[in-house]
């Protein structure tokens, strides 16, 4: 974590088993406004980590602190953490506008204020003309922008992203990379995202961690991803050899 950043999230020795997925003594901190990428293979526990921070699972061991507060007894809907699922998970029977507004309605925001907030964020994300459409009529990029707007409408200080660009074509990805840069600046929120894409991690993150078989190997500055003195297991995952690190 950048020493100049105020600590926002602290995951402390968290362990958890869910079926074939496990987390083993995960320990890291995330600063306010920082972007951290967790790289790992399919089945390494990346999504389980995000779901545990969000509140879908309780750690068997360890604790998670958010803004200095232990999240153990705080239900997910009270954590004020934005979460963008890999499949977006929008309500198909609701319009784009209704999907975006969902978080505000759950907080009891009045209809007029809700409409104003939805129109403002939809315009900012370039989907203002889609508010009356339904999710299944949207392109992949439009669905992604809608899901991001829904996740950010309540202004959470932390945004969790699960493989956010895996299903998108290269051109759409580039546009959303730029949008994510703008989100970081405008909303001043920290971002924790998981991915298997090395380029994506280096393009977006300040720091990158490697998660293999439920174990967080290390977290390094993004610029050091291919020069850090990784162990043999991580070198193999990154496609490196010991000779290339000399």
From TrEMBL:
<protein>
    <submittedName>
        <fullName>ATP-binding cassette domain-containing protein</fullName>
    </submittedName>
</protein>
<dbReference type="InterPro" id="IPR003439">
    <property type="entry name" value="ABC_transporter-like_ATP-bd"/>
</dbReference>
<dbReference type="InterPro" id="IPR050093">
    <property type="entry name" value="ABC_SmlMolc_Importer"/>
</dbReference>
<keyword id="KW-0067">ATP-binding</keyword>
<feature type="domain" description="ABC transporter">
    <location>
        <begin position="6"/>
        <end position="238"/>
    </location>
</feature>
<dbReference type="InterPro" id="IPR003593">
    <property type="entry name" value="AAA+_ATPase"/>
</dbReference>
<dbReference type="Pfam" id="PF00005">
    <property type="entry name" value="ABC_tran"/>
</dbReference>
<dbReference type="GO" id="GO:0005524">
    <property type="term" value="F:ATP binding"/>
</dbReference>
<keyword id="KW-0547">Nucleotide-binding</keyword>
<keyword id="KW-0813">Transport</keyword>
<dbReference type="GO" id="GO:0016887">
    <property type="term" value="F:ATP hydrolysis activity"/>
</dbReference>
<dbReference type="InterPro" id="IPR027417">
    <property type="entry name" value="P-loop_NTPase"/>
</dbReference>
């Amino acid at each position: 974590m950048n020493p100049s950043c105020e600590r926002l999230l602290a995951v402390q020795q968290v362990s958890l088993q869910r079926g074939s997925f496990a987390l083993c003594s995960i320990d890291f901190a995330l600063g306010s406004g920082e972007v951290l990428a967790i790289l790992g293979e399919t089945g390494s526990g990346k999504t389980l980590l995000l779901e545990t921070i969000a509140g879908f699972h309780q750690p068997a061991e360890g604790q998670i602190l958010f803004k200095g507060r232990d999240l153990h007894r705080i239900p997910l809907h009270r954590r004020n953490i934005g979460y963008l699922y890999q499949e977006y998970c929008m309500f198909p029977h609701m319009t784009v506008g209704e999907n975006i507004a969902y978080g505000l309605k759950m907080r009891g925001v009045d209809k007029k204020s809700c409409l104003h907030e939805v129109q403002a964020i939809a315009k900012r994300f370039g989907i203002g003309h889609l508010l009356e459409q339904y999710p299944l009529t949207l392109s992949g990029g439009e669905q992604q922008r809608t899901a991001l707007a829904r996740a950010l409408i309540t202004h959470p200080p932390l945004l969790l992203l699960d493989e956010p660009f895996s299903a998108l074509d290269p051109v759409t990805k580039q546009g959303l990379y730029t949008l994510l840069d703008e989100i970081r600046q405008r909303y001043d929120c920290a971002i924790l995202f998981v991915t298997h894409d090395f380029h994506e991690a280096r393009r977006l993150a300040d720091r990158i961690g490697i998660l293999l078989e439920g174990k967080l190997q290390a977290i390094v500055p993004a610029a050091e991803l291919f020069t850090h003195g990784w162990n043999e297991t991580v070198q193999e995952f990154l496609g490196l050899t010991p000779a290339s690190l000399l």
